[in-house]
DNA sequence: GCTTGACCTGGAGTGCACTCCAGGTGGGAG
DNA sequence: CTCCCACCTGGAGTGCACTCCAGGTCAAGC
């Protein structure tokens, strides 16, 4: 029976929705550090790694550029004394997400009005 | 006194928020057709052109790929009998925008919870 | 009349975020 | 024992949507 607290690459792909190539890429650029390896050199992920990838996925899918995720990753690695900075970074991002949603809602109104217009002339 | 129903490239940039390079690029790939020229070969846009660019901006800013804007542009050019197809295309896009907003709202919750967590351990 | 600057063209270059590939290793199922 | 398959590496390639550049034209304000 497999150790449920260790994930193979395939399991992480399944779990996070990232492709294996993306995960390797993230490790290469330093978004992911200190990933365990088995004797054969294959990656073995902890639940913490999977959780971290989940957060990265959330940030990526809300439009955070990699450069900023990297800054965040460095804050996390730097230790507890950076918690305030992390909060600041996330709050800034949260504001951008809010603006993004507002913009989308606004534009959706325009699209809907266009649809109504087309319906009226059909 | 300038004719208010004719826009220079600079005015269109001001009006639409697109860069002049993007506008030329859109003309090159066929998102923009039959743009008037003055004697010197410079572009002169009509209010209709500006309106069309405004719609393109909305579609672009809600994530529609150029290939699909191109399909839409072709429908518009093909004439009145494509109105139903245009509605279908816009409705499909509208559903994607809706999903996008929902995803963003959901992820924003996660970001906010992360912020709360950091605040609690600070 | 001259300068300035907005505009033109074709084509090359950029930035981002992956994605793919060749060539190779190691371990478990049959 | 052999096959297969998941995995490995470094590095090249991709797709999208612009963005920039060199070299040139024209029109209007001073």
UniProtKB/TrEMBL annotation, chains A, B:
Domain of life: Bacteria
Family annotation (CDD domains): HTH_YyaN
Domain HTH merR-type: 6-75
Keywords: DNA-binding
InterPro entries assigned to the protein according to its UniProt record, in alphabetical order: DNA-bd_dom_put_sf (IPR009061), MerR-type_HTH_dom (IPR000551), MerR_fam (IPR047057)
Keyword Nuclease (UniProt): no
Name this protein carries in UniProt: MerR family transcriptional regulator
Organism: Nonomuraea longicatena
Lineage: Bacteria, Bacillati, Actinomycetota, Actinomycetes, Streptosporangiales
């Amino acid at each position: 029976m497999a150790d449920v607290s260790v994930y193979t690459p395939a399991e992480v792909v399944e779990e996070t929705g990232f492709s294996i190539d993306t995960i390797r890429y993230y490790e290469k650029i330093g978004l992911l550090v200190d990933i365990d390896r088995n004797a054969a050199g294959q990656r073995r992920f902890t639940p913490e790694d999977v959780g971290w990838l989940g957060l990265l996925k959330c940030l990526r899918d809300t439009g955070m550029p990699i450069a900023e995720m990297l800054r965040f990753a460095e804050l996390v690695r730097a230790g507890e004394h950076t918690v305030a900075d992390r909060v600041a970074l996330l709050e800034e991002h949260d504001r951008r997400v809010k603006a993004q949603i507002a913009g989308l809602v606004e534009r959706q109104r325009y699209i809907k009005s266009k649809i109504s217009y087309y319906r009226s002339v059909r």
